[in-house]
Amino acid sequence: MKTLIIINDAPYGTEKAYNGLRLANQILKDYESSEVTVFLMADAVTCALPNQKTPNGYYNIERMLKSLIQKNGKVKICTSCAEARGIDQIKRIEGAELSTMKELAQLTAESDKVVTF
User: Fold this and answer.
1) Ranges of H-type helices in the chain
2) Could you tell me the CATH number of the domain that includes residue 63?
């Protein structure tokens, strides 16, 4: 089973990134033969920045992304969204890759399930 999870919100302030990553990690834990790709768009591109200082009362999105990557999940970052925020040239969490709308379209077409947050 191939699952694509699209996240649009910033890592902190709402729980959308947190819940999307919880789902992604749970799928990889419970269904070992599954393929999970998380596509970060809009303000969610900042989820892939390293050295996050977690606000009080929040979870650490960087750790959640690293856990996903360690379980062979894929993390894609919308290049145009990153460029719009001036972060396309700065360091990202290891394993998170810049991507394109063309690749998102392909991932969507090839996935068995698509979930957005």
Assistant:
1) 16-30, 61-70, 79-84, 101-110
2) 3.40.1260.10
